[in-house]
Each structure stands twice: as structure tokens, then as C-alpha cells.
Specification:
6-stranded mixed sheet; 8 helices; globular; binds magnesium ion; binds adenosine-5'-diphosphate; alpha/beta
Length: about 230
């Protein structure tokens, strides 16, 4: 699915978070949204996902203004598994809450895809590691075969080695399944590794955009400062 956003504006009371955002999420590509904490990245993807409304501008999904969000899936920041449910029940959450019981085969196949051992099937989130929880959250996001997946800081809280593993896994899965991916991160290394295109947001507008493999060659001053971790 191609998603085209034009002149999007969003405020919460007096807090003008997104001033004028225009960007295109290309079909079956991995688009990265970069920007400082609090710049509105999560708000932006929640608007695209239709969890929030917006004040003005337009969003077109395959050239239409409406979309069935069953095609979408989101890996929320911090992964948020339900502590009282087993890993398998978390992965099959939508079926589980509807009292469906024949999901074991599908769950096991997804667990294999994301590199979760069978032994975690009946475990609870508190009994597995942070990296394993991310894998389980990813499996849950994939459960409904989304056409578009939104990943909000998928490597938050992981050490560099586990972050690399999760990034590798994400690329493998989105390429194999032809999923359109939108990933939020403030980690340049992850952006270069997992993305096709990037958009850098600051002060409510897109300050820079381009191909992820050219990030380090950007001429944009604000983005350069961001990359070097500088403050201003
Ligand atoms: N539900 C909400 N109600 C009011 N303000 C919100 C809400 N969600 C986010 N904001 C505000 O929007 C701004 C951007 O937040 P967010 O998109 O979470 O930033 P980030 O880029 O770190 O993901 C912040 O100032 C935040 O306080
Ligand atoms: Mg956020």
C-alpha cells in the first residue's frame, strides 16, 4: 500500500505538534521516521493508523481517503505484552479474546519465523528475556498478516547485540512477506541498516528526506547535528 500524506497538521490544545508534514510511504518499502524524543513521531504514525484524528491536511491510502485498518498492524513502543497471558495467547491475542482456540499451529509457525523457541509457548512474559518479548510482540503484530506494519522504536530497551538481531529479523520478515513498513527510531545505525527511505522531523515539519543508504552524506545541517548527537 502507498500512503501519501500532505500538509498534515495536528495540535493538542495549544501544543502544535505537527505543523506541516508531507511524506510518502512507498509500497513494500521500509520507511524510517527519525527525530528527537517528543517531536511527534508516535503521534504521526498513530494518525496514519487512525488512532488519532488530525486538524488539517490529507492522507491517501492507495489513492483513497478511507482505509480498512485490518490491513494495519502496530508494534507499540515497549512491546506491551499482557502479563497475565501466555506467550502463545499474546501472539494470537485477537483470536484468543474472541474465544477461538484453534490458533496453535499458526502461533507455532510465527514463533519459528521470529526465532522463538517452542518452549516459550506456554511461558508468561515475565519468564522470558527482553529480546524474546520483542520477538513475541513482533509475532503478534504479524498474526493478522498485515499489509502495512508500524514499528515504534522496536529496539528500545535492548542492548546493541539484541538490537542488531531484532533489526535483522525485521528486515528479513518485511522483505519476505512484502510488507510496507514504517519504523520510528532515533538510532541512525538501525535506520541505515533497516530502511529504504527516511524522513527527519524537527519542529513539526520534515527537515530532510532521502535514501537511508545516503544518510551519512546528508547536507542538511539540522539533520547532521541530530546524527552527531549534538544539541542546539
Ligand atoms: N494523547 C495525547 N494528548 C496530548 N498530547 C499528546 C498526546 N500524545 C502525545 N502528545 C504530545 O505530542 C508531542 C509528541 O509526542 P510523541 O509523538 O509521543 O513524540 P515522539 O516523537 O517521542 O514519539 C508531545 O509534546 C506529547 O506530549
Ligand atoms: Mg514515540
Amino acid at each position: 500500500m502507498i500512503i501519501e500524506i500532505k500538509n498534515l497538521k495536528k495540535k493538542f490544545d495549544k501544543n502544535l505538534v505537527l505543523k506541516d508534514i508531507s511524506l510518502t510511504i512507498e509500497k513494500n518499502k521500509s520507511t524510517i521516521i527519525l527525530g528527537r524524543s517528543g517531536c511527534g513521531k508516535s503521534v504521526l504514525i498513530k494518525i496514519i493508523y487512525q488512532l488519532f484524528n488530525y486538524d488539517s491536511g490529507s492522507i491517501l491510502y492507495d489513492n483513497k481517503s478511507g482505509v480498512n485498518i485490518d490491513k494495519f498492524s502496530m508494534l507499540f513502543q515497549y512491546g506491551a505484552l499482557f502479563d497475565s497471558l501466555k506467550i502463545s495467547e499474546n501472539i494470537a491475542f485477537t483470536d484468543y479474546i474472541n474465544n477461538k482456540t484453534n490458533f496453535n499451529k499458526k502461533v507455532l509457525s510465527l514463533m519459528k519465523d521470529v526465532g522463538l523457541e517452542k518452549s516459550t509457548f506456554n511461558r508468561y512474559p515475565s519468564e522470558i528475556s527482553g529480546g524474546m518479548k520483542k520477538r513475541a510482540a513482533l509475532a503478534r503484530a504479524l498474526y493478522k498478516n498485515p499489509k502495512v506494519i508500524f514499528l515504534d522504536e522496536p529496539t528500545t530497551g535492548l542492548d546493541p547485540i539484541n538490537s542488531d538481531k531484532i533489526n535483522d529479523l525485521i528486515i528479513k520478515i518485511i522483505k519476505k512477506r512484502n510488507i510496507t513498513a514504517v519504523t520510528i527510531t532515533h538510532d541512525i545505525k538501525s535506520a541505515i541498516k533497516t530502511g529504504d527511505n527516511y524522513y527527519f522531523i524537527e519542529d513539526g515539519i520534515v527537515r530532510d528526506k532521502g535514501e537511508c543508504n545516503k544518510i551519512l552524506k546528508t547536507k542538511n545541517k539540522t539533520f547532521k547535528t541530530f546524527i552527531s548527537g549534538g544539541k542546539y
